[in-house]
Design brief:
With 273 residues, the protein is mainly α. The chain has eleven helices and two strands; from the N terminus they run αααβαααβααααα. Strands 1-2 form a two-stranded parallel ribbon. The chain is globular, with a radius of gyration of 23 Å. The two termini are 41 Å apart. The mean pLDDT is 82.
Amino acid sequence: MKKKNINEMSFLDHLEDLRWHLIKSVAAITIAATGAFLAKGFIFDVLIFGPSKASFITYQLLCKASQYIGMESFCFTELPFRIQSRTMSGQFSAHIWTAITAGFVVAFPYVVYQLWKFISPGLHQNERKHSRGFIIISSLLFFLGVLFGYYVICPLSINFLGTYQVSNEVHNDFDLSSYIGLIRSSVLASGLVFELPIIIYFLTKVGLVTPAFLIKYRKYALVIVLIVSAIITPPDIASQVIVAIPILILYQVSILISRIVIRNQKRKEKKHV
């Protein structure tokens, strides 16, 4: 059946169209999640429990860096905690939800593609032409955020929280769901935060944000960035600074993107005069 023109579609037609895009997205996530479910050994032994081992690459790099400046605070042979499951369905539930999370991460480009297929009919032909890189750029930023969360935020958080003690009488035995929840939230939060330039691009396109606005409220944005860094990282200054730096860079990139969008809009206006 031939697809209706965007101007001819009713509200119910739009809902039906959205429903099919959502179904396709869920199907892609389900397929990817099934693959992740079957790859249990790699997902858990290598990826999930990787940051809990002293041999993890981030710890090795931090150890070398600390030795270079005359310190050995990040050098250790093992992390002093154990991970255990305290409920009957704990391991199975962790397996299911971890597979779904991995499925979402893997299928993210296709999910973005379906989102693009839904909103692109409402754009002008010229806007669609200039926004073809949306899927690639947004996916690249998301994956960069996921990697940053996994290789930076996760090991910093696990190292801090796993070694923190209020007393030698208290031993750290973490529940499996708590440990995986920390990794999941760190990875997904970082992936979404790295989408800031894309968000600013669309907000500028619809006129809600301007470069002048972003520059004027940059000092407030700095405070928000520090708050976000404090939320997704352990409460030590070094970790917060490490996380804040790329977010601030993304904010500056967003200002540049906003300027480019405004400049292109002004050029179009001059052509139509």
